[in-house]
Amino acid sequence: MAKAVRFNTTGGPEVLYLKEVEVGEPGPGEVRVRHVAVGINYADTYFRNGTYAVPLPSGIGVEAAGVVVALGAGVDHLALGDRVTYTGFINTLGAYSTERVIAAAPLIKLPETISYEAAAAATMRGLTAAYLMRRIHAFREGDTILLHAAAGGVGLIVSQWARLLGLKVIGTVSTPAKAELALAHGCSHVINYSTENVAERVRALTDGAGVDVVYDSVGKNTFMASLDSLRKRGLLVCVGTASGPVPPFDPVLLAMKGSLFVTRPALADYIADPAEKAALAGELFDHIGSGRIKIEINQHYALEDAVHAHRDLETRKTTGSSIFVI
């Protein structure tokens, strides 16, 4: 039988458990996929702890790569044996499993140049990096960005992509080891936010001007420092809340700090159009397949280690990407 990680109530990592499940046959518009590798994302903790509400009991995980082993009626863009990957939100929830039935629409055919492991580690993170780099701001060569969590899975991809575009990257990290990793993947400078004042260091590194764009996946603890690091009319891109949600603020604050812009994008809105999703995925896989962007998979777990994996995520013990190997 197949196995899947489930949770019956929201809470800490301990609410996760592994059980045997009946997969069944795919219905119209569906396929059955045998997973080879499953992505682990910080967003998974939001489902588990109730930040993202879902009916309970529930599966968990939104990203995986594997092989199509059964086709439902009406699925004509996939074939048995196709290598596929996927990511999404509610429509892909349940990826922490050995095999599952899923709607065919979110599935992306996987080029032979991309391993299952790399796909599971990089489909969500990579598509996130793709839209952040290619859709959020009209960058010019020489622009400077501030990238929080630069040694994380998304951060390592963004910094490499930014380097390809000729951008300067200032990354923030929490340890010297993470600083070395960020520098090796495209950051021009790193700031250890545990010991340094981020905004002051940014001003020093930019001759007082500030950066063009800040990518902030941390949230509450970094919001003000992010605003204070921007040049006049700069853009803050809020892409996560690892430290908690950004507190309410008066928009006049943005005027006082230099007519700043703030946006809170979501991946789902940038891959909803199949053509745009295909374009972003194609560019991403081309970079990975050619070696221009390297995917760092620094943590490997078994499905039965889901509790441990989530604890590592939330205590910031991980760098790069984490996956379950089936």
UniProtKB/TrEMBL annotation:
The keyword Oxidoreductase applies. It comes from the Bacteria. GO terms for molecular function: mRNA 3'-UTR AU-rich region binding; NADPH binding; quinone reductase (NADPH) activity; zinc ion binding. Residues 11-324 form the Enoyl reductase (ER) domain. Gene3D superfamilies: Medium-chain alcohol dehydrogenases, catalytic domain, NAD(P)-binding Rossmann-like Domain. The keyword Oxidoreductase applies. Keywords: NADP, Oxidoreductase. InterPro entries: ADH-like_C, ADH-like_N, ER, GroES-like_sf, NAD(P)-bd_dom_sf, QOR-like, Quin_OxRdtase/zeta-crystal_CS. Pfam families: ADH_N, ADH_zinc_N. GO terms for cellular component: cytosol. PANTHER family: QUINONE OXIDOREDUCTASE PIG3-RELATED (PTHR48106), QUINONE OXIDOREDUCTASE-RELATED (PTHR48106:SF13). This is Quinone oxidoreductase. It comes from Massilia cavernae. The lineage of its organism: Bacteria, Pseudomonadati, Pseudomonadota, Betaproteobacteria, Burkholderiales.
